[in-house]
Predict the 3D structure of the following.
Amino acid sequence: MADIIDGKAVSQRLKDELKEEVAGLKAQGKEAVLAVIQVGNDPASSVYVGNKKKACAYIGIGSESYELPEETTQEELLALIDRLNEDDKITGILCQLPVPGHIDEDTIIRRISPLKDVDGFHPMSVGALCIGEKGFVSCTPAGIMKLLEYSDIDVEGKECVVVGRSNIVGKPMALLLLRANGTVTVCHSRTKNLQEVCRRADILVVAVGKPKMITEEYVKDGAVVIDVGIHRMDNGKLCGDVDYDRVAPKCSAITPVPGGVGPMTIAMLMYNCVNAIR
């Protein structure tokens, strides 16, 4: 049976390490303050924002909350971001996505200073990742790399397959695996013979957005399977992009849903916030 990669335990360990580091930085007079912007009151966004504030409080990072009404204009939001960019006290800025339809997401992402882009979404952050320079890395793929590291799973020389090519997960995930000397294939909706490609993987990362799409036919014996998806089924239970019960018996290690990749995203956001003042 597969080893279960416990994202809750790893994220707690990382947050405890960061808490200790933050205390040391404070002793040197260095403080991190995260500005969190939320436009509208989408329930899921409100939960995420609340969790981010709790994580900040736990590790000792300051947080400032800007809860804006749904009808906030793009110009008003950009003006707030400009103000926060100029505020030396603020070390990180996060605008909770999605934003209402009348606001252009890409414009907002590009307006946040790359020096405060703790989400790692700015084109300059992505460019730094591409060419191997230091910079903020998108939190979910960065969290997956920490899961592999803390689970003593070596990427070097391994055949790695990423299913999904989004800007937030798929593309940066491929770049991080490549940086760790993996041999990387990126699959997507137009990939031919997807099962065959996935079965080559020593490490299979699935971020396709379709519940239980990946079954045992996609997985070779002894593979490591990382499930990024999260969906609520009709019975109210959560599941991932991987059919866990069918796939787990074939794996050497697998992340569960919930409790796998999910907790790492906020832990890595905290890592990026600390990195802003390192």
In short: The domain at 16-116 is CATH 3.40.50.10860 (Rossmann fold).
